[in-house]
């Protein structure tokens, strides 16, 4: 039976992903386990902004996004990073098609509540699942950059974890896999927790055990675990065979489940 999952690849780990990671993705695709990729690229955006002499500023983990910064965000995410992932998938022998949320109004967005403070940062209001399904139906792995657009044609910078969670909910996939640079959610003793519930997450944020870049991941997980999305798995992309383990076997990384 065909199985589908959304995979979020974080900028923390993209450059370090080995060729075997994409070969694993290809093997899954050949077995009928189909991926949709939503990617980040925060470190690459900051690096390019730095080269242009523009400082990176974050409020609660979200980048302050002026019109000038938005140009760089789109250039780096929808250009360099998106095409790098598409190329690497194609090198593995699988087919891939890159899109940003602007293409076909794939990701509809509205300004976040504190837009007066952080500028053109968006929340997802809708995802055009038909486009994603059409691309998958043609045998291509969709690779999506997290830029949103509103009815007036304004672009928004969207946190990639948030965008991936919204894509997972709207597609109604069974699982979202979050590929990052740590082996899962760790407790205060640095032990990786095999499973955490939504309630435990709230307690870990309150105690400070979950902080920084892990917060948008777990918030996106909480927002998308309902209906058909049964679990979100946080894994390290360095581990050989990590994707097939996470999708077919389990027992790797941290599973976030409803209860
Ligand atoms: N409880 C936790 N367990 C594991 N990592 C955590 C935890 N709390 C915060 N983090 C941090 O979250 C980081 C991953 O988020 P981030 O750097 O934004 O990655 P990405 O670019 O993949 O989105 C880890 O490198 C780690 O520093
Ligand atoms: C609004 C906001 O903060 N957007 C992010 C988008 C990229 C991202 O989320 O990348 P990672 O997954 O690598 O962190 C940014 O500008 O950095």
TrEMBL record:
Catalyzed reactions per annotation: N-acetyl-L-glutamate + ATP = N-acetyl-L-glutamyl 5-phosphate + ADP
Biological role: Catalyzes the ATP-dependent phosphorylation of N-acetyl-L-glutamate.
GO BP terms, alphabetized: L-arginine biosynthetic process via ornithine
Classification via Pfam families: AA_kinase
UniProt organism field: Paenibacillus albus
GO MF annotation list: acetylglutamate kinase activity; ATP binding
Catalytic activity, EC: 2.7.2.8
Binding site for substrate: 41-42, 63, 157
Segments forming domain Aspartate/glutamate/uridylate kinase: 4-236
SUPFAM superfamilies: Carbamate kinase-like (SSF53633)
Protein name: Acetylglutamate kinase
NCBIfam families per record: argB (TIGR00761)
Domain of life of the native organism: Bacteria
Site residues (Transition state stabilizer), renumbered to this chain: 8, 217
